[in-house]
Amino acid sequence: MTRYLDVQHMRQLCARVGIAELLRRIAAAIEADFRRWPDFEKSPRIARYAREGVIELMPVADRSHFSFKYVNGHPGNPRHGLPTVMAFGVLSDMHTGYPLLLSELTLTTALRTAATSALAARLLGRPDARCMAIIGNGAQSDFQALAFMTLLGVRALRLYDIDPAAMRKLADNLCAVCAASGMPPPEIRLCGSPREAAAGADIVTTLTAAQARAEVLTPDMLLPGVHVNAVGGDSPGKTELHRDILKNSKVFVEYLPQTRVEGEIQQIPEPNATELWNVLNGTRPGRTSEHDITVFDSVGFALEDFSALRVLFELSSALEIGSQLDLIATPDSPKNLFGLLRHAPSEPSPDKACALTPCM
What we know:
Blueprint: E1 2-5, H1 7-17, H2 19-35, E2 46-50, E3 53-61, E4 65-73, E5 87-93, E6 99-104, H3 106-124, E7 131-135, H4 141-152, E8 156-160, H5 164-181, E9 187-190, H6 194-198, E10 203-206, E11 213-217, E12 227-230, E13 239-241, H7 243-247, E14 250-253, H8 256-262, E15 273-275, H9 276-280, E16 294-297, H10 302-319, E17 323-325, H11 339-342
Parallel strand pairs: 1-6, 7-8, 7-10, 8-9, 10-12, 11-13, 12-16, 14-15, 14-16
Antiparallel strand pairs: 1-17, 2-3, 3-4, 4-5, 5-6
């Protein structure tokens, strides 16, 4: 049987483990898997684009497990009462091909994206970074804020969104989580522009959803030493940073063949970017000075979902959360698949045995 985690199961898991602890576990799993980067068979995600958005498949595998994620990105969905991003995924046993886990990944994608951002900022940001700007306060922003608060010790947040209600939503959610968990609430300022939010911030995270070549950040907004998490630009023709920021910064990516097409560096003909796993393994430098401006050009990569699915499978199995799904047809005799149909519950019993004619 395949373990199945639906949205309610995921809510149970978050309640039992705690969102902060789940972020820590996912970040640790992503770091461990990135450190063994050469062990994985990797490829850019398979994407199909329409005027309204994109639908993608994201596969990756090592010798033991295969995973894939189905995910979309449709910025206009909130007008129809649907999330911009929706996802589910599968973790399978490479030795047999059997699917071990079928899981919702909409909530999980938000968790793993935030965990990856915090991991990158720990490697690339200044150790004393405590003030963070979040530009774009939609569905991903709450997870980003919690990841940076719990994993990096961020204590001050500068929020900006073109929709004032989104800023208030984020501030209210963070205050409620802190009150419920006993965590000290952050200092929160609602800002009137991206420039005001970025002013004085040690870390600037962009999370805008518009499918456009935008310049949410320009070079004059960034002080020396700042770390930028560019998360919103994740498909061809969709960017958030002025191209001169990329020219004058140290740029880091997840998987260069994918980011070159979908990330901020699509604006640069010959991008000089370092894959994050090289920094983790010490083969390439990260930040070398407190004055460096570093950019994590994050588009999301399949290995992060692989890591998150591993964590979900281990925790849900240990805590007995989820259900068993009869997803794969498994007849008593593996070579007699048709036998399952012969004995289907809805089939009436035959009145007489079938007459067999010998072959001549």
